[in-house]
Protein backbone atom coordinates (compact mmCIF):
# COMPACT_ATOMS: atom_id res chain seq x y z
CA UNK A 1 0.00 0.00 0.00
CA UNK A 2 1.36 3.42 -0.91
CA UNK A 3 1.07 5.77 2.01
CA UNK A 4 1.67 8.99 0.15
CA UNK A 5 -0.04 11.00 -2.50
CA UNK A 6 2.98 12.52 -4.23
CA UNK A 7 2.45 15.76 -6.09
CA UNK A 8 4.78 17.94 -8.13
CA UNK A 9 4.67 20.88 -5.76
CA UNK A 10 7.48 23.19 -4.63
CA UNK A 11 8.57 23.67 -1.04
CA UNK A 12 6.36 26.27 0.59
CA UNK A 13 7.47 28.59 3.39
CA UNK A 14 4.94 30.71 5.26
CA UNK A 15 5.60 32.95 8.25
CA UNK A 16 2.50 32.84 10.40
CA UNK A 17 1.83 35.90 12.54
CA UNK A 18 0.25 35.70 15.98
CA UNK A 19 1.25 32.20 17.04
CA UNK A 20 4.83 31.76 18.16
CA UNK A 21 6.19 34.48 15.87
CA UNK A 22 9.68 35.87 15.79
CA UNK A 23 8.46 39.05 17.42
CA UNK A 24 7.13 37.03 20.34
CA UNK A 25 10.25 34.95 20.57
CA UNK A 26 12.70 37.86 20.74
CA UNK A 27 15.63 35.52 20.53
CA UNK A 28 14.42 32.97 23.05
CA UNK A 29 13.36 29.44 22.28
CA UNK A 30 9.68 28.55 22.33
CA UNK A 31 9.33 24.87 23.16
CA UNK A 32 6.29 22.58 23.23
CA UNK A 33 5.84 20.44 26.33
CA UNK A 34 2.82 18.47 25.10
CA UNK A 35 -0.07 18.68 22.65
CA UNK A 36 -3.65 17.49 22.82
CA UNK A 37 -7.34 18.35 22.71
CA UNK A 38 -9.40 20.09 25.38
CA UNK A 39 -11.73 18.30 27.78
CA UNK A 40 -14.54 18.62 25.23
CA UNK A 41 -12.53 16.31 22.93
CA UNK A 42 -13.05 18.78 20.12
CA UNK A 43 -11.00 20.95 17.76
CA UNK A 44 -8.61 22.68 17.65
CA UNK A 45 -5.34 21.01 18.55
CA UNK A 46 -3.61 22.85 21.41
CA UNK A 47 0.05 23.11 22.31
CA UNK A 48 1.02 23.50 25.96
CA UNK A 49 4.33 25.37 26.05
CA UNK A 50 7.18 25.24 28.55
CA UNK A 51 6.67 28.93 29.32
CA UNK A 52 3.09 28.24 30.46
CA UNK A 53 1.23 29.48 27.40
CA UNK A 54 -1.33 27.46 25.46
CA UNK A 55 -1.25 27.93 21.67
CA UNK A 56 -4.14 26.85 19.44
CA UNK A 57 -3.66 25.38 15.95
CA UNK A 58 -6.99 26.07 14.22
CA UNK A 59 -5.42 25.39 10.80
CA UNK A 60 -4.46 21.79 11.71
CA UNK A 61 -6.66 18.83 10.80
CA UNK A 62 -7.98 17.16 13.97
CA UNK A 63 -10.34 14.38 12.93
CA UNK A 64 -9.89 11.58 10.45
CA UNK A 65 -12.44 8.75 10.15
CA UNK A 66 -14.52 6.74 12.60
CA UNK A 67 -13.81 9.13 15.46
CA UNK A 68 -10.04 8.73 15.06
CA UNK A 69 -7.83 11.80 15.32
CA UNK A 70 -5.68 12.95 12.43
CA UNK A 71 -1.95 12.60 13.10
CA UNK A 72 0.11 15.34 14.73
CA UNK A 73 3.74 14.99 15.82
CA UNK A 74 6.28 16.86 17.96
CA UNK A 75 10.02 16.78 17.48
CA UNK A 76 11.92 15.16 20.40
CA UNK A 77 13.08 18.55 21.69
CA UNK A 78 9.72 20.31 21.28
CA UNK A 79 11.04 22.85 18.76
CA UNK A 80 8.90 21.67 15.84
CA UNK A 81 5.37 20.39 15.27
CA UNK A 82 4.07 18.57 12.17
CA UNK A 83 0.44 18.32 11.06
CA UNK A 84 -1.87 18.29 8.02
CA UNK A 85 -3.45 21.62 7.12
CA UNK A 86 -7.20 21.80 6.77
CA UNK A 87 -7.27 24.29 3.89
CA UNK A 88 -5.16 22.36 1.37
CA UNK A 89 -4.26 19.03 3.02
CA UNK A 90 -0.53 19.79 2.93
CA UNK A 91 1.76 18.17 5.49
CA UNK A 92 3.59 21.05 7.17
CA UNK A 93 6.25 21.54 9.84
CA UNK A 94 6.07 24.59 12.09
CA UNK A 95 9.18 25.92 13.82
CA UNK A 96 7.85 27.26 17.10
CA UNK A 97 10.53 29.88 17.81
CA UNK A 98 10.10 31.69 14.48
CA UNK A 99 6.53 30.88 13.46
CA UNK A 100 7.80 29.62 10.10
CA UNK A 101 5.65 26.92 8.49
CA UNK A 102 7.25 24.79 5.78
CA UNK A 103 5.35 22.31 3.63
CA UNK A 104 6.80 18.84 2.97
CA UNK A 105 7.00 18.56 -0.82
CA UNK A 106 4.65 16.07 -2.44
CA UNK A 107 2.77 14.93 0.68
CA UNK A 108 -0.89 15.78 1.09
CA UNK A 109 -3.87 14.38 3.01
CA UNK A 110 -5.53 11.37 1.36
CA UNK A 111 -7.73 8.39 2.15
CA UNK A 112 -4.61 6.24 2.60
CA UNK A 113 -3.44 8.49 5.44
CA UNK A 114 -6.62 8.40 7.52
CA UNK A 115 -5.13 5.83 9.92
CA UNK A 116 -1.46 6.75 9.49
CA UNK A 117 1.14 7.35 12.19
CA UNK A 118 3.21 10.53 12.02
CA UNK A 119 6.55 11.08 13.75
CA UNK A 120 9.09 13.88 13.50
CA UNK A 121 12.89 13.68 13.63
CA UNK A 122 15.14 16.11 15.55
CA UNK A 123 15.23 19.60 14.01
CA UNK A 124 12.24 18.63 11.86
CA UNK A 125 14.67 17.16 9.32
CA UNK A 126 12.61 14.06 8.48
CA UNK A 127 9.04 12.92 8.96
CA UNK A 128 7.97 9.32 9.40
CA UNK A 129 4.66 8.14 7.96
CA UNK A 130 3.50 4.69 8.93
CA UNK A 131 0.44 2.58 8.31
CA UNK A 132 0.31 -0.90 9.79
CA UNK A 133 3.65 -2.59 9.03
CA UNK A 134 4.52 -0.12 6.27
CA UNK A 135 6.69 2.92 7.15
CA UNK A 136 8.50 5.57 5.15
CA UNK A 137 11.12 8.15 6.17
CA UNK A 138 10.61 11.36 4.18
CA UNK A 139 13.15 14.14 3.75
CA UNK A 140 11.22 17.22 4.88
CA UNK A 141 13.18 19.50 2.55
CA UNK A 142 13.23 17.52 -0.70
CA UNK A 143 10.23 15.23 -0.22
CA UNK A 144 12.37 12.21 -1.09
CA UNK A 145 10.97 9.05 0.51
CA UNK A 146 12.86 5.97 1.75
CA UNK A 147 10.95 2.77 2.51
CA UNK A 148 11.73 1.15 5.85
CA UNK A 149 12.03 -2.66 5.54
CA UNK A 150 8.65 -4.31 5.99
CA UNK A 151 7.83 -5.08 9.62
CA UNK A 152 10.21 -2.48 11.07
CA UNK A 153 9.06 0.74 12.71
CA UNK A 154 11.35 3.77 13.21
CA UNK A 155 11.97 4.10 16.94
CA UNK A 156 14.72 6.68 17.41
CA UNK A 157 16.89 9.05 15.41
CA UNK A 158 20.40 10.12 16.29
CA UNK A 159 20.44 13.73 17.60
CA UNK A 160 21.53 15.04 14.18
CA UNK A 161 19.04 12.79 12.33
CA UNK A 162 21.83 11.20 10.26
CA UNK A 163 20.84 7.74 11.50
CA UNK A 164 17.56 6.07 12.44
CA UNK A 165 16.95 2.92 14.47
CA UNK A 166 13.91 0.80 13.53
CA UNK A 167 12.49 -2.05 15.63
CA UNK A 168 10.50 -5.18 14.83
CA UNK A 169 7.73 -6.78 16.90
CA UNK A 170 10.34 -8.39 19.20
CA UNK A 171 12.15 -5.05 19.63
CA UNK A 172 15.18 -6.21 17.70
CA UNK A 173 16.50 -3.36 15.61
CA UNK A 174 18.21 -2.33 12.40
CA UNK A 175 20.16 0.90 12.04
CA UNK A 176 20.07 2.95 8.83
CA UNK A 177 21.80 6.06 7.52
CA UNK A 178 19.25 8.57 6.31
CA UNK A 179 21.27 10.12 3.45
CA UNK A 180 21.94 8.08 1.46
CA UNK A 181 19.54 5.48 2.83
CA UNK A 182 21.27 2.24 3.79
CA UNK A 183 21.65 -0.29 6.58
CA UNK A 184 24.66 0.28 8.84
CA UNK A 185 24.13 -2.35 11.55
CA UNK A 186 21.82 -4.57 13.59
CA UNK A 187 21.35 -4.87 17.35
CA UNK A 188 19.38 -7.35 19.49
CA UNK A 189 17.50 -4.63 21.34
CA UNK A 190 16.15 -1.20 20.39
CA UNK A 191 16.80 2.02 22.22
CA UNK A 192 18.33 5.47 21.87
CA UNK A 193 20.81 5.90 19.03
CA UNK A 194 24.01 7.86 19.72
CA UNK A 195 25.12 10.80 17.53
CA UNK A 196 27.55 8.63 15.53
CA UNK A 197 25.10 5.72 15.20
CA UNK A 198 27.56 3.36 16.90
CA UNK A 199 26.02 3.00 20.37
CA UNK A 200 22.52 2.08 21.49
CA UNK A 201 21.38 2.93 25.02
CA UNK A 202 18.53 0.70 26.19
CA UNK A 203 16.64 -0.32 29.30
CA UNK A 204 17.63 -3.66 30.83
CA UNK A 205 15.23 -6.46 31.75
CA UNK A 206 12.37 -5.24 33.93
CA UNK A 207 13.38 -1.65 33.14
CA UNK A 208 15.66 -1.52 36.17
CA UNK A 209 18.74 0.10 34.58
CA UNK A 210 20.30 1.51 31.42
CA UNK A 211 22.84 -0.49 29.43
CA UNK A 212 24.92 0.37 26.35
CA UNK A 213 25.41 -1.76 23.23
CA UNK A 214 28.31 -1.39 20.78
CA UNK A 215 26.91 -1.71 17.24
CA UNK A 216 30.26 -2.45 15.56
CA UNK A 217 31.38 -5.24 17.92
CA UNK A 218 27.90 -6.63 18.52
CA UNK A 219 28.55 -6.72 22.24
CA UNK A 220 27.47 -4.93 25.39
CA UNK A 221 29.87 -2.21 26.44
CA UNK A 222 31.66 -3.34 29.60
CA UNK A 223 30.24 -0.73 31.93
CA UNK A 224 28.11 -1.42 34.95
CA UNK A 225 24.44 -0.85 34.05
CA UNK A 226 23.25 2.56 35.19
CA UNK A 227 20.61 2.29 37.92
CA UNK A 228 17.38 4.21 37.32
CA UNK A 229 15.75 6.61 39.80
CA UNK A 230 13.37 4.76 42.11
CA UNK A 231 9.56 4.83 42.23
CA UNK A 232 9.09 5.86 38.60
CA UNK A 233 8.58 4.02 35.31
CA UNK A 234 11.11 4.69 32.49
CA UNK A 235 9.46 5.72 29.24
CA UNK A 236 12.10 6.95 26.82
CA UNK A 237 15.81 7.60 26.33
CA UNK A 238 17.51 9.99 23.94
CA UNK A 239 21.07 11.28 23.51
CA UNK A 240 21.46 15.04 23.96
CA UNK A 241 24.17 15.43 21.31
CA UNK A 242 26.93 15.99 23.90
CA UNK A 243 27.47 12.40 24.98
CA UNK A 244 24.85 12.42 27.72
CA UNK A 245 21.46 10.75 27.91
CA UNK A 246 18.08 12.31 28.63
CA UNK A 247 15.73 9.94 30.45
CA UNK A 248 11.98 10.43 30.60
CA UNK A 249 10.05 8.76 33.44
CA UNK A 250 6.43 8.72 34.56
CA UNK A 251 4.81 8.25 37.96
CA UNK A 252 3.07 4.83 38.29
CA UNK A 253 -0.69 4.86 37.95
CA UNK A 254 -1.24 3.80 41.56
CA UNK A 255 0.60 6.92 42.81
CA UNK A 256 -0.83 9.53 40.43
CA UNK A 257 -4.04 10.59 42.10
CA UNK A 258 -6.67 12.31 39.98
CA UNK A 259 -4.80 15.44 38.93
CA UNK A 260 -3.09 13.99 35.87
CA UNK A 261 0.01 12.14 34.71
CA UNK A 262 3.31 13.42 36.20
CA UNK A 263 6.45 13.17 34.04
CA UNK A 264 10.06 13.87 34.95
CA UNK A 265 13.21 14.33 32.87
CA UNK A 266 16.64 13.22 34.10
CA UNK A 267 20.07 13.78 32.55
CA UNK A 268 22.44 10.82 32.75
CA UNK A 269 26.22 10.77 32.37
CA UNK A 270 26.89 7.28 30.92
CA UNK A 271 30.60 7.36 31.88
CA UNK A 272 29.97 7.97 35.60
CA UNK A 273 26.41 6.69 35.98
CA UNK A 274 25.38 9.95 37.64
CA UNK A 275 21.79 11.07 37.03
CA UNK A 276 20.12 14.33 37.99
CA UNK A 277 16.65 15.73 37.46
CA UNK A 278 16.37 18.54 34.91
CA UNK A 279 12.62 19.05 34.76
CA UNK A 280 9.13 17.82 35.65
CA UNK A 281 5.57 18.52 34.60
CA UNK A 282 2.07 17.04 34.80
CA UNK A 283 -0.31 16.46 31.90
CA UNK A 284 -3.76 17.25 33.38
CA UNK A 285 -6.44 14.60 33.14
CA UNK A 286 -8.56 17.14 31.23
CA UNK A 287 -6.22 16.92 28.22
CA UNK A 288 -7.53 14.41 25.67
CA UNK A 289 -5.28 12.45 23.29
CA UNK A 290 -2.07 13.89 24.80
CA UNK A 291 1.14 13.79 22.75
CA UNK A 292 4.15 14.33 25.00
CA UNK A 293 7.46 15.70 23.71
CA UNK A 294 10.09 12.97 23.80
CA UNK A 295 7.71 10.03 23.45
CA UNK A 296 8.36 9.81 19.69
CA UNK A 297 11.56 9.40 17.65
Report the order of strands and helices.
EHEEEEEEEEEEEEEEEEEEEEEEEEE
- Which spans of ≥5 residues are poorly predicted at pLDDT below 50? 1-27
Number of DSSP helices?
1
Shape descriptor reads: globular
Strand order of the largest sheet: 1-8-7-6-5
β-strand number: 26
Overall structural class, as computed from helix and strand content, comes to mainly beta
Largest sheet: 5 strands, antiparallel
Radius of gyration: 19 Å
Percent of residues in helices: under 10%
Assess the beta-strand content as a share of residues.
over 45%
Q: How would you state the average pLDDT, rounded?
A: 87
> Termini separation (Å)?
23 Å
Protein name: WD40 repeat protein
InterPro entries: WD40/YVTN_repeat-like_dom_sf (IPR015943)
Organism: Streptosporangium lutulentum
Topology of this structure?
Blueprint: E1 13-15, H1 22-25, E2 32-37, E3 45-49, E4 54-57, E5 72-74, E6 80-84, E7 90-95, E8 100-108, E9 117-120, E10 126-131, E11 134-139, E12 145-147, E13 153-157, E14 163-167, E15 173-178, E16 181-187, E17 192-193, E18 199-203, E19 209-214, E20 219-220, E21 226-227, E22 233-239, E23 245-250, E24 260-268, E25 275-284, E26 288-292
Antiparallel strand pairs: 1-8, 2-3, 2-26, 3-4, 5-6, 6-7, 7-8, 9-10, 10-11, 11-12, 13-14, 14-15, 15-16, 17-18, 18-19, 19-20, 19-21, 22-23, 23-24, 24-25
Amino acid sequence: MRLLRLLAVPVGVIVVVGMGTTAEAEGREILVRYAGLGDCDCAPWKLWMRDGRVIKLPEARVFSVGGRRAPLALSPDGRYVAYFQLKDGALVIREMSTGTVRSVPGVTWSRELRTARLDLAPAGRYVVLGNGRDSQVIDAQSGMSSAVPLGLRPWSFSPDAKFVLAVDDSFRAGIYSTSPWGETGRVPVGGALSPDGRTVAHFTARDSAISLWDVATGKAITLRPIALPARKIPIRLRWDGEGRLDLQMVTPRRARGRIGVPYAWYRVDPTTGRAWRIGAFTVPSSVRHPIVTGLAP
